[in-house]
Design brief:
By secondary structure, the chain is α/β, with parallel strands linked by helices. The protein has one domain: Rossmann fold (3-Layer(aba) Sandwich), CATH 3.40.50.620. It contains 7 helices and 13 strands. A 9-stranded mixed sheet has the order 11-10-9-12-8-1-6-7-13, with helices on both faces. A two-stranded antiparallel ribbon has the order 2-5. A two-stranded antiparallel sheet has the order 3-4. α3 crosses α4.
């Protein structure tokens, strides 16, 4: 069973800064981690490989050279292969242009029985890349997957978490799934895994390998346009009650809740 896992390196902070001119995220000087939901996807891939008794797990990521750190973490956790897609031509890509690169890389490195990815990335929260890659590859796909089970050599059953509860689907291979954190608990790398990752020879590829039209890449290939960036201003009018005024403060809270029809 051959499984591809799409991973992304994201800023290790909630204080994301944007370039007001380009409308892109400023990543310089910010610590980075593997996107948490992608770790759930990787854990699922490794579990499926163990269940099948054989197979191969390949992780793919598009990003700057430092994305190598996330791929080495994936190798330390048990992935067999890693491919870093890096090229200045990819810079500034939105979800569409990113998906274009990932889909082409999957075409050239596959075929794969299954493609897994996190439902969304913490630095974008769009949830678009997985479905876009599936559409570009003309594959069936399922999103919001919180449980899965391979029920035959050619099929997988998934449980989707939706607003009304759960939805169950059966998909034939090849297919693509985007997963939630409810799916599993990601493992920690072992010492042997870390040693292997340190020595591992990562594969890299740029557009000279993918051979995509330059107008479909990076900013020029991104139909999304950020026309304005604004930061929310949080203002609070506070009242402070302490000591002998605590009872008065409690009454004030009750009054405010009643005014808001919350009590």
């Amino acid at each position: 069973m051959k499984i591809a896992v799409l991973v992304k390196q994201v800023p290790d902070t909630d204080e994301v800064k944007m370039d007001p001119e380009k409308g892109t995220m400023v990543r310089e000087g910010v610590g980075a981690i593997m996107n948490p939901l992608d770790m759930n996807a990787l854990e699922a891939a490794l579990a499926l490989k163990r269940g099948a008794g054989d197979g191969e797990v390949t992780v793919l990521s598009m990003g700057p050279p430092q994305t190598e750190e996330a791929l080495r973490e994936a190798i330390a956790l048990g992935a067999d292969k890693a491919l870093l897609l890096t090229d200045r031509a990819f810079a500034g890509a939105d979800t569409w242009a990113t998906s274009r690169v990932l889909a082409e890389a999957i075409r050239k490195t596959g075929p794969f029985d299954l493609i897994l990815a996190g439902e969304k990335a913490t630095d974008g929260e769009t949830g678009q890349v997985g479905p876009e890659v599936a559409a570009m590859l003309d594959l069936p796909f399922s999103t919001y997957v919180s449980a899965l089970e391979r029920i035959s050599p050619a099929e997988i059953r998934v449980r989707r978490t939706i607003e009304e509860g759960y939805q169950y689907q059966i998909l034939s291979f090849p297919c693509l799934l985007t997963v939630l954190s409810d799916l599993n608990e990601p493992s920690m790398p072992t010492l042997a895994g870390k040693k292997k990752a340190r020595r591992f020879s990562l594969e890299t590829a740029g557009n000279e390998t993918l051979d995509l039209p330059k107008e479909e890449l990076g900013l020029s290939g991104s139909p999304t346009r950020v026309v304005r960036i604004s930061y929310p201003k949080i203002t609070r009018n506070t009242e402070h009650f302490s000591g002998s005024r605590l009872d008065e403060g409690i009454e004030r809270v009750v009054t405010l809740l009643k005014e808001q029809a919350l009590l």
